Amino acid sequence: MRWPTLLLPTIVAASLPIKLEIKRALDSGLANIHVTYTALVPSETIFTYGLCEAQTPGEAHHLITRTTDRRHDRLVWLIPADIASGGCLSAWDQHQNLLGRSKSLSFVPSLRTTRRRLRKRQEEMGIRMDNSSSIDAEGPWFDGVAALTGKELAAVDAAAAKSKEIVIVGAGMAGLMTWLALNESGMTNRTLETQVRDNIRKWVPCDFRSLSNIAPPTRRCKSKTTNSFSTSSTKSIVATATIQTSPSPSSPGSKAVPMGCTPLAGSACPNGKIPTQADILANSSLVPESVTDPVTTAAEGAVDAIFNNQTFIREMARNIFRAHKSFLDTGLNGLGDDDWSEFAYLHNYLDYALNTTLVASSGAGPGGFWEILLDSVNFAATTRQTIDGGLSRLPSAFHPLVDDITHMDRKVQRVSYHQSTKRVTLQWKTKPLDRTFQNASYNYAVVTVPMALVRTWRLPAFSPLLSTAIDTYGYEQVCKVALQFQTRFWEQFEKPIYGSCSTITDITGISNICYPSSDINSTGSGVMLASYTGSDDGLRWPSVPEEEHVQYVVDAMAEIHGGMVYEQYTGQYNRRCWILDEYETVS
């Protein structure tokens, strides 16, 4: 269906007191109607879409909204599915007199072209955000969309909305990404509050930049084949890095380099050297069998069957939303994951004894399966993409964009909300020993600092659920030690190690060892992430004096890589234990 069009004479349109415009192509289900008042309109205004020659609002295809507020300059238009091209937007007063009319509008000039464009956009996104991806369109993810369906949306004063004062507390990646999203939406009245004197990772000389987050996985090889598939859930990270910096080419990941050493107790090659992962894959007898019993082995097998389900891990990599929904509904052999921790699954459902459960789950306690499954996807990646010079360059790239609106060294201690003014107030001290608090108030506050830090603040009264989430959200402690060497000697071995975190050891306090994945085979110094520990080790080792801890790590590297470690070590190091960081407290 296409409505006939009445071309309103220009002189008549210009004489009407309301001007209606659409400034962008009508190719989605939502649009902004730009409204300009050229004369006083004293009564309620009714906005409709329908025939361009309509004489009354009753002839319209549908009502858009009605308002008595003259301060708005935009209307939010929720476009019905049965809309047709060739109609006009119209404005009427309460006596059904025409106050304004737009030009004839056209929706989607070519349905085939639009479908092709949408298909291409969805392919670029990696995940189709609709029922075809098994995303629950009736579930919490789309509650906001469902709430809009069939609603009469209010008029919007865009200038007033964009004038709201918004403070983002915390200038880590969450805070910076919040700033980026608001900035892209035209919200310019924003402030960043950060508790450090410089933005993220102020201690990053070039060699130490890879002490930050692990590089995002982009592809994963299928076990025992050369087939690979993309990891779609990290595409937004790579896209942001592309906008803000110049990402480096994809590099091998932690499981892609079989030359990493495996210095486990009792493991050795016939020549006495520590075996590599490739050596162990070729000859499993190089590693002594662990002492266990058949019942514990069976319990461990039950857990491994879940974590090493390659079919499901592949589905997670392809579509994290569909996989999550599937696991919640039918995971754990139909039980669904929402109600079962790893410990409860083994003990209460599979009926293993407490001691067996404790050993098989490595004391996992109340931890769930999903987090470990995510680690299975991320750490098993065979291709990663990072930023040349380290991921720390991503937050650093925000400096010229946000420095002018960022307040450094504000350690927020109190947050309050005033019902009468509808404003949020932050309080802090200029110096720790001051008795007087400084304060600033805003329309909205977005808090992006870790929950563990928020727990130390004085907060307004929240709902019991939100308060419980703040008080109990779990974190793991991590402690890292990086050592600088005169050369990248590990790349000169008979079996060279190129990048990755492929060396894993059971030496206490070391755990994972990571090698730089950028500037492979370059000359000059190189930094090895010589200790990457978490959980209990990440909590206990920070109590060891720093120099003693670093020397322990140097000695462990010499045990693994040989005496050249002492010759090559420059004495430069960086220990990063997050529990010692007053601004983060957690990793």
TrEMBL record:
Annotated SUPFAM superfamilies: FAD-linked reductases, C-terminal domain, FAD/NAD(P)-binding domain
Pfam family, one: Amino_oxidase
GO biological-process terms attached to the record: amino acid catabolic process
InterPro entries: Amino_oxidase, FAD/NAD-bd_sf, Flavin_monoamine_oxidase
Domain Amine oxidase, chain residue ranges per copy: 301-583
Gene3D superfamilies (alphabetical): 3.90.660.10
Protein name (database record): Amine oxidase domain-containing protein
Organism this protein belongs to: Endocarpon pusillum
Source organism phylogeny: Eukaryota, Fungi, Dikarya, Ascomycota, Pezizomycotina
